[in-house]
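For reproducibility, we list the full input for the phenylalanine complex.
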Amino acid sequence: MKDIVNQHLADIEAFLAETPEEIEAFRIKYIGKKGLMPALFTKMKDLDAEQRKEAGQLLNQLKNAVNDRIEILKSQTNSSSINFQTEDDLSRPANFAFEGSRHPLSIVRKKMIDIFARMGFTVEEGPEIEDDWHNFSALNFPPEHPARDMQDTFFVDKDPDIALRTHTSSVQIRKMENSTPPIRSIFPGRVYRNEAISARAHCFFHQIEGLYVDKNVSFADLKQTLLHFSREMFDAETGIRLRPSYFPFTEPSAEMDISCNLCGGKGCGFCKYTGWVEILGCGMVDPNVLKNCDIDPGVYSGFAFGIGVERITNLIYSVKDLRMFSENDLRFLNQFKAAH
Ligand code: PHE
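The corresponding predicted structure, in tokenized form, follows.
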């Protein structure tokens, strides 16, 4: 039975059709009343219980393969549900509609947003084409800072004032310019950097920026918020580690690692055998940045963070190559059908 089924499976995979009539003939050949499948099912009755179970599974596999093939052929020949079979047979079942699925980055972004929303953060967005003020100057970047360089930033029409934003921190400025504290918001979005595309780097990726400005906001608040986020996102055992770092717009600044959830912190290829993986940059909003937005640093303080959405997604789904996210390969995307 196994050999027969395998031969049929190979035939089915290889079958091509150009017209709806050919697809219909294919369907009748296999699953029509007098087709191959009903005949095989009849044969099954002669087998003993053990063999029958195995044969049943094989035949189901075959039936699914036929149906899948028909769906693929139908989409290729563009046959609409009306003219696919006899036009006036209104009793026949409707064709299956192809169901799309959410992109893995959308699934993860939504989960991240939900966690912050539960903590009272509002969700806002800013433009992807930014001016120098919002992307750099207001964020306290000195004029000679290397991040402004042509090598990192995509400028629009060679205008040094207009560029694709290199981070979502630009939206912090827009938010602070347009509102008064208390501010508790996150800003999800796409950012761009002029980098060679490889498995580990891309010229665009996604971040979720967070900003909290109020009276008496402390570094302890930042730590607790990020610990809570990490444990909600991964699991209650997840640990965090803050390493001192530098960003022009935060002081003090840190980069945050979480315990590698692929190996449980023991060390593996993904965490380069350190047990930790970096997921975000953060810090206390620099007083100069508050001043640039007309917020009095003598009265208010705040924290900010920027999380890489691809990073989190890779940790959850073990996606090894960043290019997968933007190639629209259905073999990759269809794996996330059950995931939302
Ligand atoms: N904007 C920084 C980056 O893209 C991340 C960051 C955001 C750091 C907020 C501190 C505060 O790397």
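The first strand starts at residue 122 and ends at 123. The chain has a mean pLDDT of 91. Both points were considered when choosing residues for closer inspection.
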